[in-house]
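4.2 Preliminary Data

To establish feasibility before requesting continued support, the project team ran the inverse folding procedure on a target of 314 residues. The structure was first converted into the token representation described in Section 3, and no sequence information of any kind was made available to the design step. The complete token record follows.
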């Protein structure tokens, strides 16, 4: 029955490609890759090998696409009941679950091979651990059973930062784990803001997101707490680790100030979905700019410019 529906929906090969592309949830992947790239820039002190960057990003892309595809397979029953997900390829019948699983396995295999052969084994193993954690721990064990799903699941989102560092150095330093921690702490405010926006849909399908099981007030309090855990943590890259400099610190301070302000306003208006949406969108913008600040700060040109400015001042 699903096969006939898929045949009816796909009128040409390009539509088939588009359906499989949608399975990977492509809007999520770029943010993950930015953490990988920024980690590589710090680890290489602003002199990242472009070929290494390209191969690592491609490997990360395939791995993330594999994990998201398996997530779509697992969640197709609840996706069918939620407005924002009911048009996904598996729910609408444009792709069969068995075909999607083959696609996911192929992507994971390609990712591991690419990283193990052209980068190093550590980065390949970390990438596979990210898939296993996202699918096995977050999607299977936590998402439908525990309101701490997003908190613990945030570890999967932090793994790309570890992959980037390992790709350059073949080791994991304190700086790499701090980048992991930044993403880990960023994840709850980001996703709980989304959960506040679509609380009714999560309640409808029985997913115990924090706003559903504890209410909006408790959720906004937790967003406030995690925001205050996140922002100071970002400065640890500058001190005591000293892997970033003044440019990153200034940008992180400004971005963090706006993050705290938005969390504060939401704390006092927990039922305002527009404020929740504002924080959700800003959290994406925040992580993108923080990663960009890391890259700019690590460039040799930036260091030379700062030295020149200091010389002029003196």
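Position-by-position output of the design step:
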């Amino acid at each position: 029955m699903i096969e006939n529906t898929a045949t009816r929906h796909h009128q040409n090969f390009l539509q088939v490609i588009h359906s499989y592309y949608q399975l990977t949830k492509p809007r999520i992947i770029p943010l993950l890759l930015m953490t990988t790239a920024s980690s590589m820039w710090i680890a290489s002190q602003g002199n990242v090998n472009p070929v290494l960057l390209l191969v690592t990003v491609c490997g990360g892309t395939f791995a993330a696409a594999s994990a998201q595809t398996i997530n779509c397979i697992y969640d197709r029953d609840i996706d069918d009941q939620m407005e924002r997900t009911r048009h996904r390829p598996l729910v609408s019948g444009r792709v069969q679950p068995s075909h999607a699983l083959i696609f996911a396995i192929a992507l994971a295999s390609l990712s591991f091979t690419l990283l193990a052969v052209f980068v190093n084994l550590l980065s390949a193993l970390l990438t596979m651990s990210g898939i296993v954690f996202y699918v096995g721990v977050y999607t299977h064990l936590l998402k439908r059973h525990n309101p701490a799903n997003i908190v613990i699941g945030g570890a999967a989102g932090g793994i790309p930062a570890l992959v980037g560092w390992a790709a350059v150095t073949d080791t994991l330093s304190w700086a790499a784990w701090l980048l992991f921690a930044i993403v880990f702490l960023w994840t709850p405010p980001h996703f709980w803001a989304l959960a506040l926006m679509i609380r009714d849909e999560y309640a409808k399908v029985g997913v115990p997101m924090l706003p559903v099981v504890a209410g909006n007030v408790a959720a906004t309090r937790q967003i406030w707490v995690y925001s205050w855990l996140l922002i100071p943590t970002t400065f640890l890259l500058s001190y005591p680790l000293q892997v970033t400099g003044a440019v990153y610190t200034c940008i992180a301070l400004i971005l963090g100030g706006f993050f705290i302000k938005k969390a504060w306003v939401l704390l006092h208006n927990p039922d305002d979905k527009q404020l929740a949406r504002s924080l959700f969108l800003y959290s994406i913008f925040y992580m993108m700019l923080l990663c960009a600040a890391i890259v700019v700060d690590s460039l040799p040109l930036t260091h030379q410019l700062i030295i020149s400015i200091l010389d002029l001042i003196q």
